[in-house]
Protein: DUF4157 domain-containing protein
Organism: Halocalculus aciditolerans
Amino acid sequence: MVMRTRSVLAVAALLVFAGCVGTPVTQPLAGSADAPPDPATDQLGWEAGYWYNESLAITTDDGLNESEFQAVVNRAMARDEHIRNIEFEKQVPVEVMTREEYRQQSNGGGSPSEARLAFDNAKFQSLFLVGQDENSLSVQQSNQGSSVLGFYSPSKDEIVIVTNGENAVIDELTLAHELDHALQFRNFEMGYASPTRDASNAHSGLIEGDARYVENRYEEYCGEAWQCVKPEPKSGSSSGSGGSSLNLGVYIVKYFPYSDGPGFVGALKDAGGWDAVNDAYSDPPDTAKEVALPETYPEAGHTNVSLADTSDGEWDRVTVPGRAPYGEVGVAGITAMVAYPSYDDSKEGGVVKPRTFLNYKPNGDVQSDDPFNYTNRYADGWTGDKLYVYQNAADETAYVWRVTWESPGDAQTFASGYRNVLAYWGGETVNDANTRYRIADGGFRGAYFLQTSGTTTTIVYAPRASDLDDVRQGTPT
């Protein structure tokens, strides 16, 4: 399932939702003098009786009836054809559901395996985003229920638009986004194996980047040459979606494809037109870093991090069928780790200044289409990482996380930032070498070991200091 999510920019504890909003409009009648004649055969920019620049007789203050809705869908298909230069060979079914219906449906997916829950909990705990007393899968599900605007189901070849209530007007930009997903899955091989978070962000950087690029061009036309259907914002709310429940740290990790993907696709298109973008589906980026820095695609150095399992018999590796037997969080995870304290309301202060991880316009506003800087100084120079998750008989978890860098300076910068993150969450140094730390209470309580050697940083976490050497032999306790 591929989807469009709401862009959420939280600065100084404020959630600002960037979307397509406007007042109800009445548009001229389709087929009137402003509409070109229908072509004799189907062609780019025309679909099921509607040209891409054709006007519609629609009043949006009472929602859309069936004929109005289908006219908007047909015209949006023509507009996607015009922008993306790919023909729709058949109609795309489009359904609408309310956000509450979506939440109920997405909550009915069954219980995850114990291994998956333990692995994901440890992964987000290692980034200080979800505490050990929380359920990371529930946090991710809640995030998605609050921010998703629509999705395309490849298995059903249909689109679902999520609205904030009955008879709500659909967002034509969301429709454009999901229609591009239909074009992708109908025309390109999309069966990518994405066994880690970084691989998923890399592949989605192309897929969602393509759809967001089309959506952004579509929006530019809406502001100039085209009349577009826009939902009316709810009174007294910037979104009406309950976005205040979002975990912004997890959001930053998973928003990467929507933030940096359009720039990646735009760079490909500038270099070789849509053919270059189409060719990328046969050779997708391997890491999120290639998406964030398009000039490194497709030759960005990616280290297969060497990490031996030296745990003793009390700690067993946790692996999830269908995934890599390790985690790799990449530049998006590292960025979220240092950025999240700026949004945490449990204590004052942060770890880094917002300008470290946010992209600003010259006027001082955050860029709504590309809000996050995933190549900040703490993530810059990343070449690979590997996270091993462990569990003992008491269902306690531990992990070993190793990150490799382009230079010793990059490694030292990351280590410095990591120490600041530890300190923010209550970490205290317990040895003179500044390699061992302790967090006494809270969701990240436990013992930590941090060591940088050349271009490699190794982190070991265990519930107690006495467990560190059991999780990874040779770790000073």
Remarks:
- The first strand starts at residue 2 and ends at 5.
- DSSP finds twelve helices and 15 strands in the chain.
